[in-house]
Amino acid sequence: MPLGHIMRLDLERIALEYVVPCLHDIGFCYLDNFLGEVVGDCVLERVKRMHRDGELADGQLAGPSRGVAKRHLRGDQIKWIGGTEEGCEAINFLLTLIDRLVMYCGSRLGKYYVKERSKAMVACYPGNGTGYVRHVDNPNGDGRCITCIYYLNKNWDSKLHGGILRIFPEGKSYVADVEPIFDRLLFFWSDRRNPHEVQPSYATR
C-alpha cells in the first residue's frame, strides 16, 4: 500500500476518532510524536536559523493596543510564513499535514467548516521570564476557529524552564497545563471558550 495512502488513512482516523471528539468534549487536544524526530529536527533547524539570523520581530498586541509591542504582556518574537519560502520545505510539510487533519474534521466541528488558514506564525520566547499574559486568540469573531501549535523544544523541563501553556476552559472549574515539548501538536478552539497564557519561560522556547 502506498505510503501516501497509509498516511491519509492515519490522519483521517486521528481526526475523526480523536481530534473531533476532544474538541467537542473538552475544547482542546494534543498529539505527541507527530512528525518524528528526523522531520521534526528539520523544522527545528530552520526555525533556529530564522532566530539566529534576526528574522523574528517582537510580537504585537491586538485590540485597543493593536500594533503595540509591550514586552511585559507579550514577550515572543515572531515571523509569519506561508511555507513556500526558500528553505522552508520541512515547515511546508508540517503545514500540509495539519491542513489535512483539519480538512478531515470536515463538517463535524459544529457550526464551523474550515476552508483556509492564515500563514503560520513562527514564535520564539527568548527566556528571561518572557511569556504572554492571559488572552483569547479570536475574541471578536474574526474568522479564526482553531488554533494549532507545534512545539520544538527538546529536553524541555517545565519545572526548570517554565513556559507552560495554561488553558482556562470557559465554564470549567479546572485549568489545563500543556508542556511545550518537542514534536507535540496542540489544537484548541480560538474563541472565548479557551482563554490561555504562556507562563514565563526561563530558557529559549
Please state the overall shape, judged from the principal axes of the Cα atoms: globular
Spans with pLDDT under 50 lasting ≥5 residues? none
Beta strands, count:
10
Estimated share of beta-strand residues: 15-25%
Strand arrangement within the widest β-sheet reads 5-10-7-8
Supply the CATH superfamily name.
Answer: q2cbj1_9rhob like domain
Helix count, per DSSP? 4
Helix and strand content put the structural class at alpha+beta
Spell the H/E element sequence.
HEHEEHEEEHEEEE
**What is the CA-atom radius of gyration, in angstroms?**
17 Å
Could you tell me the mean pLDDT? Answer: 90
Give the domain tally. Answer: 1
Question: Which architecture name does CATH use?
Answer: Sandwich
User: What is the fold named in CATH at topology level?
Assistant: Jelly Rolls
Q: Given this structure, which CATH class is correct?
A: Mainly Beta
Main sheet overview: 4 strands, antiparallel
Distance between the termini: 39 Å
Helix content: 25-40%
Quick structural overview:
It comes from Chroicocephalus maculipennis. This is hypoxia-inducible factor-proline dioxygenase. The protein contains four helices and ten strands.
